[in-house]
Amino acid sequence: MSEVVVVTGASSGIGRAIAQEFGKHGASVALLARGREGLEGAVRDVEAAGGRAIPIPTDVANHDQVEAAAQSAEEAFGPIDIWVNDAMTTVFAPFMQVEPDEFQRANDVTYLGAVWGTRAALKRMLPRDRGTIVQVGSALAYRGIPLQSAYCGAKHAMKGFFESVRCELRHDGSKVHMTMVQLPGLNTPQFDHCLARTPDRPMPVPPIYQPEVAARAVYWAAHAKRREHYVGIPTVYTIWGNKLAPWFAEWYLAKTAVKGQQVPGEPLDPDRPANLFEPVPGDAGAHGDFDDQAHERSVQAWIAEHPAGVAAATAAAAGALVSGLLTLRR
To answer: Is residue 151 annotated as part of the catalytic site, yes or no?
Structure first.
């Protein structure tokens, strides 16, 4: 019997790639997002990959809509096995250029959307004592950067919420599992339709990875029963660098991250549509405009996901080296 999976933010970007990845494994996927055209495209992607899918138009900032979507998913496919909280939106601007209603909306979607999704999933998983909830996080859940105060604040909040609920699950002896995947900069359409107030067009923090790298990591995390999964060398050095020398991280980001998050020589169109309050028309797909710069693989993530294979290969290499040295000594 196929897994039943709910993915929020499934109409584009990482969520779109995650839905397709589960489809490759034959899952039945309930797709939650606001944009109908993007949802229809996601249904086609999942079905083409080998899974089943239903679109459920949902604003995840609204608790009642998320609860209704969970009910619809179970009516269509049966009990939910995995719930992935991925939906996000943001304002790409210095904090004092973000209006209060804009900041609140970004947090309502990115943070509270994950809270309402978790609540809807737990309401169904706890009585069954099974299921997995994946929080799609970021290196920015550990280290805030300029121009992204709303997003960084929401991801920090998500991490605190995640840790609290995990403690409660452990206290209760629950078999429901919750994991968080911390991601690097990714080539998604968010940089084309986020609300932005910068001189030039926004871009991900390099080095950039394709959304499929994140999707494979989320699929792995949903089944590996790990507490947390870091994806990409930039995520590792951002998190550990901030733990070891936060003063240096702050100094370095203040010097480099404002210009480093803008495409040089490509002025921002002030009239471009933004998806903060309403979805942008059309089907944006999973990829943004940075295919020529984006990495298809993360060696670090592969190593983290295959520790036994890495250990065996290391042991074999060490054995071969010792054998070779002994031969030379004869």
So the answer is: yes
